[in-house]
Amino acid sequence: MLDRLPVEIVERIVAKIPDTDLIAASKVDRVWWQEVRREAYKRWKNYATTIGDVYCEIRALGKHYIKRKIDWITFEDVNNFYKNWIDRLTEDQLYIMEKMLRNGMVVDPQERETIEYALSEQRWGGDPWGLGVV
Fold it and tell me: What is the pTM of this model?
């Protein structure tokens, strides 16, 4: 009975594990697997939300540029920063999604298809989310 950690402690530990090591922690036992799966989904959704927010910022920046409220050089610098940020977030999100898929953590067929499509698009240099900011 004393050889297992309480679930609350496992939750706190898993929340602090970096993305690159997250899935490896699922190999400990069933409780860890469930907690890692829950945390991976949480991070996946957080990345999606952040990507959406950055995309909205890019669109707003474009509107300001069109209305001539900012100059071209500022627009290009900020726009490139946002594009690089979206690329990095997308890489991190796809990393988690791929690891979840390869370790049997994705059971919904639609999510499975979404992951496989996004990974295929990324491998061929496409825009996995169709945002048009590549």
Answer: 0.84
